[in-house]
Amino acid sequence: MNKSILTQRHENWVEITLNRPERLNSFNAEMHISLRHEIEHARDTGARALLLTGSGRGFCAGQDLGDRDPAKMDAAPDLSLTLKEYYNPLIRLIRSLELPVICAVNGVAAGAGANVALACDIVLAADSAKFIQSFAKVGLVPDAGGSWSLPQLIGEARAKALALTATPVPAQQAADWGLIWKSIPDDALMDEARTLAQQLANGPTVGLGLTKMAIQAAAENTLDQQLELEAQSQKTCGATPDYAEGVSAFLYKRKPNYTGQA
Questions:
Q1: What is the pLDDT of residues 12-34, one digit of tens each?
Q2: Other C-beta atoms within 10 Å of 67: how many?
Q3: Residues 213, 173: one domain?
Q4: I need a surface site. Which of 13, 29, 63, 214 has the fewest CB within 10 A?
């Protein structure tokens, strides 16, 4: 039987692939558990960057509705349990990782699948990809952090319109709006994503991780709180071997060799 999650380990970074292509990589319980396990294992074994993508013709169509047929259920489901047990821990995990997480969206990203992608730090998408807040089509609200990330990224007006109409957003439009970073020709997507993952993994990853944390904190902090956070983060970074290496490489005009050590 095919695994719902595929993991490829590189020297200092990990590529994780959603692998239910026959279901457009839609989530079921097994896939959730496997994905979180692989992300946690990558973190705990010292990966310095993660790359998340999907197999087949889509990135992720969100929740697999195959087991949600009302005609086969005795009562209405408590959908909050799915969020609390699976999606919310996944989004919190991705956001809490003190290392860069890249998402390569290789095709449609719909519903929770779109919002899992948007929880990542850098999102690249194939030109043919589309982002769809499809919840309105089945009478639901955006979840997997979507009601938070959408207005943060593109503002309230566009967030409401996308959520209320379920209008697909092509990759280039998503990039133009600031929803994602780049739209890339389909045949170049994975090469560019892997090159970026390697570049970040070879970087001063303590500083990169703290940069991620600081930018995420800015949405909630006052200016004074953010200035203090910057000072504390700079103190931590200044004590790392990578700071000394970076300064030495700059002064002596050579390529730095970062180790990612704290």
A1: 999 999 999 999 999 999 999 99
A2: 11
A3: no
A4: 29
